[in-house]
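Case study 2.
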Amino acid sequence: MKLPFLRSTVQDQLSLYVFVVVLFIAGVLFGVLMAGGMTLEQQQQLTADIEHLARLLHAGMGPDEAQIFWERAWFHTKWLLWIWLLGITVVGLPFIFALDFLKGVLIGFSVGLLISQHAWKGVLFALMSIAPQNLIILPALLIASVSAASFSIQLIKKRMMQQHTSFLPPFLAHSGVILTMLVMLWAASLLEAYISPVLMGWTANVLIVP
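Prediction:
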């Protein structure tokens, strides 16, 4: 008896996943275009900052790992908290998608700047500095966003159809997904704090050697 409902739910989830992925990719492309549209002075300033960081890492003078961990963990927690809060409100749905687009823009801008200034060297440095943690972060944010969007859509449908069923089960399911993704993001924070700087240090000389 419940199979049609489950099939509909799976189809809705798949549609949301496709939409969020496309939105993220659009953000990445927009970020790359933003990096390419910067003035030469702005590009040189940001490139100098990146090369300064590369020199510090190459010399083993990177920031304190514990400090990086707590900063990144708190950043990811706030981002995920926004997704959770927006998901439990009817008006939050567009803002969930806006956060996904913004995440794509941030990554696209970073990668675009490295590639525009350092070509293949920038690709290598991006693989070491951006890719490792985002192999965890992006799926976690994708799953959290779809969960939040799905819950928000359920709220809208129930209010439009004036259904009086309990919101507690889907709310607990959504909150459980968010907590699970929080654990994943904290694991990514450990990677950002203790592994990524080492990988960046190994490849930093690629940027600083003419």
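The chain has a mean pLDDT of 82.
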